[in-house]
Amino acid sequence: xxxxxxxxxxxxxxAKSATFAEAADHLHITQPALSxxxxxxxxxLGGALFVRTTRTVELTPEGxxxxxxAKALLSHWDTAVLDIKNRFAxxxxxxxxxSMPAFAESYLPELxxxxxxxxxxxxxxxxxxxxxxxxxxxxxxxxxxxxVFEPERKEGLxxxxxxxxxxxxxxxTNHRLAQIGELDWQNVRDEAHVIMHKExxxxxxxxxxxxxxxxxxxxxxxxxxxxxxxxxxxxxxxAIVPELCRYQMEQKGLVCKPFNEPKLHRAVGIIHSSxxxxxxxxxFLLEDSKNRLS
Length: 294
Description:
Layout: H1 5-16, H2 20-27, H3 31-45, E1 50-52, E2 57-59, H4 61-90, E3 93-99, H5 101-106, H6 108-118, E4 122-128, H7 131-139, E5 145-149, E6 157-171, H8 185-188, E7 192-196, H9 201-209, E8 217-222, H10 225-233, E9 239-242, H11 246-251, E10 255-258, E11 265-273, H12 280-293
Parallel strand pairs: 3-4, 3-5, 7-8
Antiparallel strand pairs: 1-2, 5-11, 6-9, 6-10, 6-11
Helix pairs in contact: 1-2, 1-3, 1-4, 2-3
Domain HTH lysR-type: 3-60
Pfam family, one: HTH_1
Protein name: LysR family transcriptional regulator
């Protein structure tokens, strides 16, 4: 037999009162109903909590021992209920979001500005990491939402697409290819290339899209697209990157040209764990992102 909140409230009131009748008055119930409630509590706990006489009621030694614990339990219960009510009413709490740097620098600030206008009391914890680390962060429960390209493997994840992203070729403003409208493999095959490490998804996609027999002239590899842009800006060569990086690259004074390769199209979207429900703030950010970007 389980112990109920109602029984704990009744026990504390009787312990603070001189008689069952007085306690019943405070609880706005009849004395017989109170007696039944206390009897069920004693049965659930396995022994008497009160010594009853015709005039007074007193705690047994076991009842005295239970009294402080019962008050603490009731206080904790009330605090927990009040806190969750405040979270729903005042939209309190923390939301952890992970994002690829390119998305974090372009689309994310406006999405978070809108989020903050609604959820002003929610603390935002933002991780800007490479795609692989964003996925790991969501799977490990460190981040509730992650903004990434569509993962190849989605075990434990739910992916919500936002928009399609093609790739572009990045170069300095004085590069000879800067005067051409759209580029293809034939245009870039003999150029020096700055590229991502083999362990990254972007590098994998580029390698898979390479025409048979074509080998790029790679002069530098890095793990961050921001570093790719820095090296291109120092005239190391050109780079093939997701168009999502356009803002990053143009901020460095670089030119971005469309790249005509059908295989280099990837969906950008939001991931979250398939094993746990989203909080209200996370659901709002996901739905608002869909409405604005899809």
